Amino acid sequence: MDTFEILSQLCSAAGVSGAEGSAAEAAAKLLEEYGEVTLDNALGSVICKVGSWADGKPVMLLDAHIDEIGMIVTYITEDGFLKISGCGGLDTRLLLAQQVTVYGKEKLTGIVTSTPPHLEKDSSVAPDLDSVFIDIGFTSRENAAKYVSLGDRVLIENKAERLAGSRVTSKAIDDRSGCAAILKTLELLNGQQTAYNIAVCFSTQEEVGERGAKTTAYDISADYAIVVDVSFARTHYESEEECGIMGKGAMIGIAPSLSREMSDSFISLAEEKGIPYQLEVMSGKTGTNADAIGVSGSGTKAVTISIPEKHMHTPVEIVDINDIDNTALLIAEYLKRV
Amino acid sequence: MLDKLKDLCLLDGISGDEGAVREYIIDKIGDKAEIRVDNLGNLIAFCKGKNTPKNKIMVSAHMDEVGMIVTYVNSDGTLKVSSVGGVDPRVVFGRRVKIGRNNVLGVVGGKAIHNLTAEERKKSVPFDKLTIDIGVDSREEALKLVRLGDSVRFVSDFVEYGEGFVKCKAIDDRAGCAIMLRMIEEGVEYDTYFTFVVQEEIGLRGSTCAAFTVAPDYAVVLESTTAADIPSASGEKRVCELGKGPVVSYMDRHTMYDRELYELAFSAAEEKCLPCQTKTMVAGGNDAGAIHVSRGGVKTAAVSLPCRYLHSPSCVINKADFENAYVLTKLILDRTYNK
């Protein structure tokens, strides 16, 4: 399937951390053709054993997270407005007057409260979650509570849309683009046997502390893991040394917490096959599911392969489709090695 | 009227670029009024009534909306913009925008939150630091898609939600335009001038000329005004509230409203049991500021829709207020034609 189409299907589904149901189902549907898919683990991650597993082969886990940044309802005011808390590290600078969807008994439109410039003296202060409410157009707590319960999730919706060239903007590109890259990897493998028993995990609750990956890594008990997440692509006010460059290929992770052996083989493979890549050097842990997977059970050799992304943790994230395709190509070639 | 409001709000027309809105209105009323477009782009519609009134009356609403304009293209292909009209940069950051005649999609973003210092996280991104990414990597590529001076518009859909609320961009002041469209389509008892004006948001410029041209005795300005009826504001800081009827002002930053018309509006509303409110702060301003001092002076009233989150991509009004603003405007006109 066309990469944009896969990404679009994945991004349009809702999956705020801890409430990944719709996104997990969308991903499960796309995974079905590659093997047996299960969703019935305690934390709700999507797990797929690819093809048929043979005895004696090492287990390779391909992981991307299925949850996305969002908000959660914590209180309903007397006049029917909602108070919220973050699920993951939302960029709160963009909250004011933002349209949101409240996933209550039904989907409700809400607007994040804001004071117009006519009345606001200081526009230099960034809003935070404590200073705003969500206006769902109800005038009393009683009426609002018919549709909204505490704990309901809230999302800023933005479906995938194409920008110029091969760029795409959407909510949840972090990390549905990782899921898309893994799906494309499986498409490229096309059922071919590899040296591994391959498991795919689209894990939940990464944004609140890599919890889904922790439990799935335990269940799968992999020998190796490739963790596909997004990383920072350079934007206008960032320096070259801080970020990767969008459109220049997957970012191969090098870090004390990762398997240097895997990082090195990815690099030499990319060189050998002429697949574009960049390096992402981290000095400790990686801030991805690789941290949890690496120390699961008696340990897993893990590497991060990251897709450059702009505006992380906003509803206007940007990714380059070519980067997703090149990430898939790189991982598929890695798995095909003898 | 709500359908027209939807059509009008979804059209793009930042100040100085109101063409699409004007075309739509001309299409709807071209055969129902004598229309002309002046040098600034104001649409002046003269609606012949069954009778000629004693006073020449002008009803006015503005076609333009706030937005931005492309001022520079960085070497990495991102765009710099300035605001057109009063826009809080915080309602621009993290949004989708449409740019120029080709409707190029762009997003407003910056450094990821992860890479900000604790101090930086507390600060909003000011206009001079906002960049728009359209998906290219160089100035050359960008200039194939956009030009300096291109209009930048909010992307915002029209949504009805909650207990009778409506959300869209540009409700300020397409709501006023929609009310005037309805009045023209229904026909008037007495001759009336309707002016759909340009450039309100950058300083009441269209109305300055339209009022000069029409030279009315009385004017009624249809607007949207700042409601802050949200939990973080209390008492007079709420200014006005949705659902409590149209707002008739006694004073704002540009106008001391004609006291007689002000009283007339409230007594008319009371007579017809129509909800009506005033603002509890002297804030904002509208075309009345230019109209009431036109030529030798014009007795002017403003009927405004209380609107939350004004000048953002998510303006919110209440449907009952919208209907009541239409009714109140008619009541005021009826009592003013032969005053």
UniProtKB/TrEMBL annotation, chain A:
<keyword id="KW-0479">Metal-binding</keyword>
<dbReference type="GO" id="GO:0004230">
    <property type="term" value="F:glutamyl aminopeptidase activity"/>
</dbReference>
<dbReference type="InterPro" id="IPR023367">
    <property type="entry name" value="Peptidase_M42_dom2"/>
</dbReference>
<protein>
    <submittedName>
        <fullName>Glutamyl aminopeptidase</fullName>
        <ecNumber>3.4.11.7</ecNumber>
    </submittedName>
</protein>
<dbReference type="InterPro" id="IPR008007">
    <property type="entry name" value="Peptidase_M42"/>
</dbReference>
<dbReference type="InterPro" id="IPR051464">
    <property type="entry name" value="Peptidase_M42_aminopept"/>
</dbReference>
<keyword id="KW-0378">Hydrolase</keyword>
<comment type="similarity">
    <text>Belongs to the peptidase M42 family.</text>
</comment>
<dbReference type="Pfam" id="PF05343">
    <property type="entry name" value="Peptidase_M42"/>
</dbReference>
<keyword id="KW-0031">Aminopeptidase</keyword>
<keyword id="KW-0645">Protease</keyword>
From TrEMBL, chain B:
<keyword id="KW-0378">Hydrolase</keyword>
<comment type="similarity">
    <text>Belongs to the peptidase M42 family.</text>
</comment>
<dbReference type="InterPro" id="IPR051464">
    <property type="entry name" value="Peptidase_M42_aminopept"/>
</dbReference>
<protein>
    <submittedName>
        <fullName>Glutamyl aminopeptidase</fullName>
        <ecNumber>3.4.11.7</ecNumber>
    </submittedName>
</protein>
<dbReference type="InterPro" id="IPR008007">
    <property type="entry name" value="Peptidase_M42"/>
</dbReference>
<dbReference type="GO" id="GO:0004230">
    <property type="term" value="F:glutamyl aminopeptidase activity"/>
</dbReference>
<keyword id="KW-0645">Protease</keyword>
<dbReference type="InterPro" id="IPR023367">
    <property type="entry name" value="Peptidase_M42_dom2"/>
</dbReference>
<keyword id="KW-0031">Aminopeptidase</keyword>
<dbReference type="Pfam" id="PF05343">
    <property type="entry name" value="Peptidase_M42"/>
</dbReference>
<keyword id="KW-0479">Metal-binding</keyword>
